[in-house]
């Protein structure tokens, strides 16, 4: 038997933060009113109710000055949208995955059983859902989704452990209801009742609006293994033109006007394996990874279809994942749901300029980038 652990709440006013952020992230976040915190916290959107305001002193520790330019990389499936075309998951499947990826379970390595952990029924002071608050978990602890219970995820709410989460599931559903005036490029019909839901999580647009209003220099790089790039591009261009209800006055110098798709591939070159960009017709855009990094850095927006085949064939090791090039003087952040506390299993590949070229920093060092360059959502 595997049972979830529960975490206490406080009586302070409700603020939201992503459950997988570590104390390191908490200590470096901006004030709680900042929409960037809202995106960090709502991007799944999983919520920790009633966190005290004191959890929110200032943003991602490596961004020293507020005017530092930001290069923001966003995964699509289960990060920006509640579906996963690459994994074959529906809207409802994705919400179940979101919840089960944030439930901590302890597995006995010998018997797959656990000791009984505190629960709301046994302790009335423990009233919050059992949501993970740490990136690193204790030995023999994992998430419900990565435990032997994974086969039950599609029917999670009908299981004994899923029953207490029906309220949370309903809350997430209600937060995704879109205003009637939302255009079809920015909304989708609910698979069960046909009601209009947001296509892209609204917290993403609140973040961009905040950056625009504060004139914070930034670029938006979409990174996906999926086949939904055309729909994402259409949605972002629609948002950029002022079609999103509540963001009609959004203006950021036409950041999405020239948003286009490129294809990224890990390619063997005389210098070693490098990440090279191609256009959708197969034409080569860059010849070296240095050119790729410069090309991405020069864009205000870009949609990259990353190299799933190479990553998958190589055991999902980070060196074969989605590269992100960390430059001096730029705040680089990669949001993805598939970032794990493992040196050998992660979807992002952090690169730094070393020895005359862009080099993967290594799995152990990459884990230290969590909460700075890497944000698991």
What does this entry look like structurally?
This protein is an alpha/beta fold. It has helices spanning 23-26, 35-42, 91-100, 166-175, 202-213, 229-240, 289-298, 308-313, 363-367; strands at residues 70-75, 104-106, 141-143, 187-189, 196-198, 218-224, 261-269, 272-278, 301-305, 322-326, 331-336, 348-354, 357-360, 374-376. The protein has a seven-stranded mixed beta sheet. The chain is globular and about 55 Å long. Mean pLDDT is 79; it is low at 1-64 and 114-128.
Query: What order do the strands of the largest sheet run in, or round the barrel if closed?
Result: 8-7-9-6-1-11-14
Poorly predicted runs are 1-64, 114-128
How do the SSEs run, as a string of H and E? HHEHEEHEEHEHEEHEHEEEEHE
Distance between the termini: 27 Å
Q: Report the total helices.
A: 9
Strand residue percentage: 15-25%
Number of domains: 1
- Helix/strand/pairing class, anyone? alpha/beta
Give helix % range: 10-25%
What gross morphology would you assign? globular
Mean pLDDT across every amino acid position: 79
Number of strands: 14
Main beta sheet = 7 strands, mixed
Question: What is the radius of gyration?
Answer: 21 Å
